[in-house]
Amino acid sequence: MTSPALSESTTLDAVRLREDFPILQQEVNGHPLVYLDSGATSQKPRQVLQAEYDFLTRSNAAVHRGAHTLAAEATDLFEDARSTVARFVGAREEQLVWTSGATLGLNLVAYSIGNATLGRGAPASARFALQPGDEIVATETEHHANLIPWQELAARTGAVLRHIPVQDDGRLDLDAAAQLIGERTRIVAFSHVSNVLGIVNPVAEIVALAQKVGALTVLDACQSAPHMRLDLPAMGVDLAVFSGHKMLGPYGIGGLYGRSDVLEALPPFLTGGSMITTVTLDEAGYLPPPQRFEAGTQPIGPAIGLAAAVSYLENAGMSSVHAHEVRLAERMREGLVDIPGIRLLGDAPGAERVGLWSFVVDGVHAHDAGQFLDAQGIAVRVGHHCAAPLHRRFGVTASVRASAALYNTDTDVDALVDAVSGIRSYFGVNE
Q1: Coil, strand or helix: which one is 353?
Q2: Is 222 a catalytic residue?
Q3: Which one of 24, 28, 323, 356 has the largest count of C-beta atoms within 10 Å of its C-beta?
């Protein structure tokens, strides 16, 4: 399996990398495809497609339950993939739980805490039990996947859900956070990077506030894992989630990182085969993590594909990837801010960010703007991006989001800026 010939110290050659992505070679509506929707889902290189194909055609078998050769090969590949992906985020293999994606990972945590509240699990699980009046703190910037599970957990337990506000420039209000996170705070859940604003949130400061009061921290790393080097244990978070399909990998696979003591104390959420020690007709014993949280048939092919995606990113060099995408973000901003009637969301001077901008076109609905861009072969995201409360905070119902990845080029950004400059005149909006 070939890999991009790049290292951490090498400037990323996006033009060369594009050759590894078959879908990027096509035209859309008579124009070369400009794919700027990686915040929703990334494209997949040949190396990832080949890894899944090789497994399915050479070693396909169920893992952890067979003594024949294919089963042993499949199990080795599956667990090797766990080691590869865990290492990518700085973790040990026993600290990585396979999930179908970040949404399941967040629901797993919320429902496990709910089960602890009901008295399920080992004695150590009691540390997670919530009482009426306990507080869960999220932020005003969260994706619905890191908001609704906490709403539901609060409703089931009598806990109170509170929110760290976002300032006009898109930064979290840390002074407000310091006031909100107090002695009744039991959980602090927040995104590493906003999927609307592209701003990297201050993890160290928020973790410090949570640790001061003994609160559990849960990080949504979906928009950071593909774009910057992560060391989750060093960041001090207790739990974190990420999705494979946003980081060059397959659909239906993601990871839940957890500190060992946290995972060992959490009771299971999904139950069934593959996560048990002994079973009688009346009760069961459960395996230690990560298997405790991996009931049923495993996502073997997707896990192997995600490991190939991680290897691809590592070979490209995450420092190089981040620097390349930050440069594209700067180029995008420079072009968009000069266009009359374009308003960027989260345009905070000096803020650390990834290669993502959301913007509003005055007088033109985001969906109309998106269709105009699509007619020119430019794929962007439109709507509230599963962050409706954040859009309401900025007084809009929808925005256009352009999000870059390692395979995007200056040409892509320039095509976007040029097309956006024609949106308002096309729709007859006076400037």
Answers
A1: strand
A2: no
A3: 356
